[in-house]
Amino acid sequence: MVDHVRVDEDISEFEKIIPFNQRDNEKAGKLKALCMPVNFNCDLYRPCDLSTLRRKVHQVFQVLRDNWESFTRENYLACILLLVLGVRKIELIEAQWSEFDLKGNQWNLSGERSKTGWGMAIPLPPQAVSWLEELKIRACGSPYVFPSRRSSKRPHMGKDTLNRAISKLFGREPQPENKMGNIAEFTVHDLRRTCRSLLAAAGVPGHVAERCLNHKLKGVEGIYDRHDYFVERKDALTKVAELVEPAINDIQETCLGS
């Protein structure tokens, strides 16, 4: 999550230490811009009721589907999994098939690959297993879930691939036309944030939702509560998958209902 207080403090510090003459003023402006929180007026990230949130998810994924020639199926499936599972981008795009037990509906993320350093067994809803099975076919025998499609030293999808593909749809170079319409700019990380919003909208208790995102529980609760909550997380992520599946599969009458 963006720490708005920290951002404001950082900007204040920049204003104190950077001399505002004509040459340095531009640098300060750029530095401020880098520290500002994402303007996610696409509304996936703004507070709203569940019905409205589902409509917004449908709107975003409809645009992604409509532009399949530039936004590949692999990119689309990656965004779906980020939204439904709430994992970090790097954890997903660098994943190998050896981490997955698709028959057992489980993804075993090691501590070495987790940003927090804590390993985690991630329950996979049936919908996620189906999307992963498609990706396994598309991987053509690669050990990686998202193998590199270009000649590269990296064997897996690049860390900037998804954000660049999304940026192109917003009219950034090399595609000057904005295909996103009235959707405000967002990044891949906002899909993880939206997963958290969906968990809350589905009535998932906060401590379970935080564990779904592999966040350490705060305060005294974090010290004493070391429970894995696997069963609870399985139920929670299944609820999210069921909420967004109509939007993903473009079942408009269900998705736009209350």
CATH superfamily of the largest domain: Intergrase catalytic core
| CATH fold naming of the largest domain | hpI Integrase, Chain A
Number of domains: 2
Please tell me what the overall shape is: globular
Low-confidence spans? 1-42, 220-226, 252-258
What is the H/E string?
A: HHHHHEEEHHHHHHH
The top level CATH class name of the largest domain: Mainly Alpha
Largest sheet: 3 strands, antiparallel
Number of helices: 12
Helical proportion, percent range:
40-55%
- Mean of residue pLDDT? 79
Which structural class best describes the helix and strand composition?
mainly alpha
What is the number of strand segments? 3
Instruction: Just name the CATH architecture of the largest domain.
Output: Orthogonal Bundle
Structure description:
The chain is mostly helical. It folds into two domains: 1-37; 39-255, Intergrase catalytic core (hpI Integrase, Chain A). The protein contains twelve helices and three strands, in the order αααααβββααααααα. Helix 4 crosses helix 8 (189-201). Mean pLDDT is 79; it is low at 1-42, 220-226 and 252-258.
